[in-house]
Fold CCR4-NOT complex subunit CAF16.
Amino acid sequence: MTIDSNETPALDCQNLTYSWVEGTEPVLDNVNIELKRGDRCLLLGANGAGKSTLLRILAGKRLTKTRSCKILGQDVFMNPPGGVVYLGTEWSTNPVVRSDIVVSHFLDSVGGYRHKARRDRLLQILDVDLDWHMHQISDGERRRVQLCMGLMGEWDFLLLDEVTVDLDVLVRADLIDFLISESETRGATIVYATHIFDGLRKFPTKICHMQLGSTPRGLLVWPPAGGKVEANEEDLFNMALGWLREDRELRREKEKAKGRIRGPKTDTKDRVTFFEKYDYSQDVRR
């Protein structure tokens, strides 16, 4: 992708390598992504490919030794820019958001009163009731509150990690339309990791495939040149499916070389399980 030399890239991630423990095999290896303002990038890849780790690094939540990631021209950890919002799945496990607090009070506690117009628009899009109590609502409804909380400010860069998985089809479609509008009217940039492709026909402008912690294909422009608009969603699904099959084969080869195999074990001749050696005669039930 070519970016105007006079324009600071929205995201400039070059040769990013990251390991959980120094000296061990990296979970991210030579990752390269460059986006311009207004881009909407789908981040695709198998479970464990490194998508969540990458998003958390871009959000400034993990420190890397290599200063190789910048958002809006600023280092994501040492000099994090304003206007960056990260929304991940771990939010719903926070005990605070499952406590007995009314949604209206919850949103006001994070500044909802300062963004009333945008907050009210999102309340309508996400179909949120301000009188809900956070401990009484479903996971999907709690996710809607999270999205309203995170999106009601005028963010410039949005990182989404599988946060639409709990939404019903209608709310998700309306949210996607909102995100497209934000990128087109305000030049906001979005990186969205998901395994759900329904309703994404109009969403991406770029696609990034993460494979075993790397980005071997670089960025793909979407829709592809000469592609049929009405076929994009099916094409996207089939392309992702092909990538995932390729990822699985590569991962299996890599694990086999290390003596690790997923699935049923075939070398069970000398293996004694807990259930085989357990003395059930001593299991007295009253």
